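Today's session is about reading a structure prediction critically. Students often jump straight to the picture, but the first step is always the sequence itself: look for stretches that repeat, for charged clusters, for runs of hydrophobic residues. Only then move on to the predicted structure, which in these notes is written as discrete structure tokens rather than atom positions. Here is the chain we will use throughout the hour.
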Amino acid sequence: MSDGLVYELNGVSLPHDDAIITPQVAAALKRGNYERPEVLATPKFLEPEDRVLELGAGIGYISSYVARVVGVAHVTCVEANPMLADYIRRMHEMQGLSNTSVKNCVAVPGNAKLAPEKEVDFYIRDPFWSSSLDAGRDVVSVARIPQEYLSDLIRDADATAMIVDIEGGERDIFQGGDLGTVRKIYVELHTRYIRPKGIKACFDALSEKGFYYDQRVSHGVVVLFRKL
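Below is the predicted structure for this chain, in token form.
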């Protein structure tokens, strides 16, 4: 439910929705520090010609920011939570964006040549950012969501850059498959889920594909990888 309240942050307008904008998110929006590391970092590595594939698009704030303020050519948002995917579409419409698209699906490693297409269980939690493919605890509901293979998403989006925030999925998402035209990958590491072995697996997979750690943009748990 929306009461007409609209948050304004860094050139992006976000409509209030009781089901999406939790008190914690609302407080961060009012303080002006919601997704601050991404806001500071994305202008440092994205260029106007970049086509961005965002995995785990959340409420659509970062996609709106890079499409409208940073001014990239296109952003394809991948979001598994159906409610969030709908909110992102409304967000983009509010900004008047014509250079974005939203896919309600789960990105998985590999490509369609390696495994048949199918749906997977996505476990929705409150707050929404705890939702994931992990059954775990505190599940509010389970949605059957189409899966799409990362290589195919990259190809379809003609992506040159990726922004990845998928609650531990970064451990395995780069295994196998082909990263195609992607040259920059900005990843949030969810260390409490993937632990040191998962961090190593993420770094190893990208290193094998010719990506290196860019310390100039990386900060804390958000890391930029560039293709050599």
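Discussion point for the tutorial: Helices lie at 23-31, 36-45, 61-70, 82-95, 150-157, 191-208.
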